[in-house]
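Fold this complex.
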Amino acid sequence: MQFVSTRGGSEPVSFSEAFANGLAPDGGLYVPKNLPMLPSDLLVEDALPYPALAWDFLSLFDSDHDSEKLIDIIDKSYGNFSDTMSAPLQQLGENVFVLELFHGPTLSFKDFGLQLIGNLFEEQIERTGQSINVLGATSGDTGSAAINGLAGKKGVNAFVLYPKGRISDLQERQMTCTGADNVFPIPIEGSFDDAQAIVKELMGDLKTKEDLRLSAINSINIVRILAQAIYYVHAYTQLPPENRDDVNFVVPTGNFGNIFAGWMVHQMGLPVDQFVIATNQNDILCRLFNTGDYEPEPVAPSYAPSMDIQLASNFERFLYYHNEKNADTTLSQMAEILTKGSLHIPDFDASNFEAVACSDEDILNNIRMVKEEYNYVVDPHTACGFQDLDPAKTHVVLATAHPAKFPDIINKAIGETPTEDSLEALKKKKQVTYPVEATADAVKAFIEKNSA
Ligand SMILES: *Cc1c(COP(=O)(O)O)cnc(C)c1O
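Structure:
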């Protein structure tokens, strides 16, 4: 399978090249040239084991690795999940299900993409003999998942910038207590946007990118989207047959990556009625899908911090398909966002989507309601997915993180403090950080000095 850029200015590339490039050279995002149909036997009665399903799915896109290699990479990626189903579906009520995506090593759905990415980088380094430096910025979960996926791997060093004091203590510990000498968690003064701006500046300078052999881990990488598409199929095949008509997936959303993965697999034939976009008070996507107007506002910190985002980069992929794969239109729309700061999309077709937004108060109420009604504890991000659920229809709410990652907010809502063994163990470990001045030059110099 070939991958093309949403902006049309780059050559089509293979799976491995799209993976290695991250961002396409023209600044666009890679998408599969054609979306293949899901083989119908994937949607059979009983759920396949996760690695088998992952292989069936990924081999539709990856024509670079031979079967044995791909099987090996997949087994390494998902073999360390705490639940044998990897993404188990729990039934809470007659029509209400949660898809638990927090059984990976760092307890958020980010592990599905980043464990695979870590093992693909390892294979790439073995194949090319070229060591790499991975650079990213995080508001919490991406950084910990990326660091876990790369810790101890040969030929790769990981540099992850995060806003000092603005991520949770446990998220910080997941990054800083690994004991691995190839990971460099870098606290910087400022916000997530400041950290992200430094990464974008270094990545955007093609000479620096090449000199430092930089690779990206954020959800601009198409492999993360492909990896996340798999669990939608896994969820569907775990539903009781009587619930398989008119399935609604509810997705706590920030960057539009996770929900785009679901929408993509729906285009490939997964039967879905609606996708529900669930945002926190940073409701740009909710407003967009209700009005057709993309209008970023300043980020307001919320109880669901991993969704405190206003520039949903993966929306570009949806826009490309909405434009019926017209890259010229997509290019000019992305330019308009850059110059005008907003975009009006004429005849915006949101027919596959509904959208809800949650205030912090709603998040607390939803955590309480789910506990009272179903005796189940959801994390603050997942709580956004329980806003105004219609009990007449089948809903699968994606549980994006383990509640024990956010003990203070859960305690505020229901007076209980959830715990989890791997997180408890972190509290006894030594933290190692590498503070660097919050400028692109200082970060560049630090990477040069500590390069793989
Ligand atoms: C990253 C994250 C989200 C948002 O996912 P997107 O792909 O950015 O929409 C939601 N919940 C949690 C816990 C996350 O870590």
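The CA atoms of residues 120 and 294 lie 35 Å apart.
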